[in-house]
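Hi,

Apologies if this is the wrong queue. I'm a grad student, and the batch job for FAD-binding domain-containing protein from Punica granatum produced an output file that my downstream script rejects. I'm not sure whether the problem is my script or the file. Here is the sequence I used:
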Amino acid sequence: MVVVLGNLNTENITVAGDAMHPTTPDLRQGSCMTLEDAVVLGRHIGNSIGPDGKLRPADLGLALGKYATERRWRAAWIIAASFLSGWVQQDGSGWWTKFLRDMFYKIILTKVISVIQYDCGRLPNRMGIS
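Support response: The file is valid. Your script probably expects a header line. Output copied below for reference.
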């Protein structure tokens, strides 16, 4: 809930990695999400570097805000999907749970898998290397 409603950054400070998206291990996305964070954060910071090659503190704050905005809903969906996946797989053997488990694997799992796919974008080329 903190990811959706909370403040993920302030001025020149932000959260990333497990601090932003504490998931259960059921979708195996924790490390992937951390790597995505690094690329998205690097992209926003790199795009904020001025023509003189410098990054002003105000520009850093804007870059961190863009990063947090971009990552907020991605993290929320992965956290929810991972929790749901674990709950369905581990929660008892009653008829209702079996029904939910069947629906999960037939319908919801395909939606969950589509959430896993993510394009972080390209890092800016500040070195002039092709």
